[in-house]
Amino acid sequence: GIDVLAAALERLPEAAHARLHVVVCGPALREDAGVAEAVGKLRRLRGVDLRLGFVPEAALDARLAKADLVVLPHREVDASGVLMKALGYDVAVVASDVPAFREVLGDSPVAQFFRAGDPDALAAALAKLALDPARVAAMGQAAAALRTGALSWSRAAEATEAVYAACQRRAPAGLAVGRA
Question: What is the 3-state secondary structure (H, E, C) of the chain?
Fold first, then answer.
């Protein structure tokens, strides 16, 4: 979705663009003409810092610790380590409306979803948030609530134990479920 991000940033109104400092980091997974064109567009935009290539975990942590917002413009994705790390730093999320992101974020106020692959929808979401820092701060607080609530390790443990208990109740006599 780097092409979607590049096109969205080009379409931002000046007032919104002036309030953003965008860091694009990570490897460009596909080396094709579309990615190369998007990278070229991003290089020409003011306020965009390109850090393409492998990002060590410590560097990603440092970036997320300073971030107010993370943008995930994927067209499709099965899971996102960056999303989970961003939530760990109480960072607001602008994400493509794809099943993997909806599964994690649901209708939580931590996220602003936009139609996957639609740079106009991403530009509208970014413009709205760039001009509303109070909303971005509230989204970050929602990330903290999600991280310490529904997505916490204790909730994951409770859910896992409930699955094992349900399996044990349904297991045929003599079959031990969840025991080594």
Answer: CHHHHHHHHHHCCHHHHCCCCEEEEECCCCCCHHHHHHHHHHHHCCCEEEEECCCCHHHHHHHHHHCCEEEECCCCCCCCHHHHHHHHCCCEEEEECCHHHHHHHCCCCCEEEECCCCHHHHHHHHHHHHCCHHHHHHHHHHHHHHHHCCCCHHHHHHHHHHHHHHHHHHCCCCCCCCCC
Q: How far apart are CA 136 and CA 158, in angstroms?
A: 31
Nearest-angstrom CA–CA distance, 146 and 94: 15
Record the pTM.
Answer: 0.78
The model's pLDDT over 119-129, given as tens digits with 9 standing for 90+, comes to 999 999 999 99
